[in-house]
What does this fold into?
Amino acid sequence: MLMIPGPTPVPEKALLALAKHPIGHRSGDFSQIMAEVQENLKWLHQTQNDVLILTASGTGAMEAGIINFLKRGDRVLCGCNGKFGDRWAEVATAYGLNVEIISAEWGQPLDPEKFREVLEADTEKQIKAVILTHSETSTGVLNDLETINRHVKNHGEALIIVDAVTSLGAVNLPIDEWGLDVVGSGSQKGYMIPPGLAFVSVSPKAWEAYKTADLPRYYFDLGPYRKTAAKNTNPFTPRLICFMLSR
Ligand SMILES: Cc1ncc(COP(=O)(O)O)c(C=O)c1O
It folds into this structure.
């Protein structure tokens, strides 16, 4: 067995289910599956927040995590200690945010003290988000999200936005207990199903920020995902086969 971070091995039961014919995504059968999957996602995420399902890879969850909750020119801190931390900074820069990088050498964890210093110095509360990768797949380093998040909570204003693509389902990530605002993940990792679905959990505080966010968005506008999820459906044609496997 090749022990790479992803795509992870898919259990045989799931592989056999891939052979099934897709069902209509506006059908009662689909809604039943969606209701069950949504409940299970809340359990997996240890949250009562919305956990929305996108047809995308993990990077889609990252992009959705930025464009729905921030405004052009917002000051954000990005933790960079590997390829996926760098990707956060690239996405944030692409959307015109004012990106300040807190870096560590590749192979080393981000230093929570550096976050504390910058957040404490921000008495005017201009930092709108702290954005980081929990498990930095490119090096295998697990960042100390719990401590960094504590500093974000002491700041009071900034959202915490987390890439949990290779941590969710693999290490403890108590979203409600820690109060994490936006957490993104992808089906091909800890979920052990094929690539093609991305998941984003969104806190009430992040939904408040959504109301005034002004970055361009359409396919990844999470508002319609939230509205349709309440009715156990999806705004667009979802990757049905993955839903069927997610049960
Ligand atoms: C930590 C992390 N973030 C983001 C991604 C990007 O995910 P994808 O390739 O599914 O877009 C990966 C993929 O390996 C990852 O490990």
About this structure: Strands lie at 50-55, 75-80, 98-103, 127-133, 135-136, 141-142, 159-163, 182-186, 197-202. The mean pLDDT is 94. The longest strand covers residues 127-133.
